[in-house]
Amino acid sequence: MNGNKLVADTSLIINLFNGNTLARDVIHQRQLWLSCITEIELLSFPKLSTPEKQLLNKFLDECVILDLTKTIRDATIKIRSSYQLKIPDAIIAAMAHYLDLPLVTFDHDFKKIENLDLVLLENG
């Protein structure tokens, strides 16, 4: 993976916070772009303690979080109808397409999408 920018999906961040060294190594010294959907998914987890939420917010402050533009919404509709992905995954994929950045994930559902610059990580 070339460049220092990447789109991180929710599974990558969860793995990072669970101590996954592969996730840590992949994001090291890279600028992370996140969908607002990823932010919502992470912060709405009901079992987050207050210290965990504070740590997560500090981490998110270091990321670029992109809201849903009209272009991304339109691309989401196209991806969701073509590949039958869950709406959050379709939004994240549409954002990666829009930004022309690699999407880094542990989620195999993204393999369905043609022409997506995908970096699929495996838990070892």
Order of helices and strands: EHHEHHEHHEE
Q: Mind telling me the CATH superfamily name?
A: 5'-nuclease
Overall radius of gyration = 14 Å
Biggest β-sheet description: 5 strands, parallel
Give the uncertain stretches in residue-range form. Answer: none
The CATH topology corresponds to Rossmann fold
Beta-strand percentage range: 5-15%
Q: Strand sequence of the main sheet, in spatial order? A: 3-2-1-4-5
| Number of helical segments with 4 or more residues | 6
The CATH architecture designation is 3-Layer(aba) Sandwich
Structural class: alpha/beta
Shape label:
globular
Number of strands: 5
Please give the alpha-carbon distance between the first and last residues.
19 Å
| Helix fraction by DSSP (H/I, runs of at least 4) | 40-55%
Write down the overall mean pLDDT: 94
The total number of structural domains is: 1
What would CATH call the class? Alpha Beta
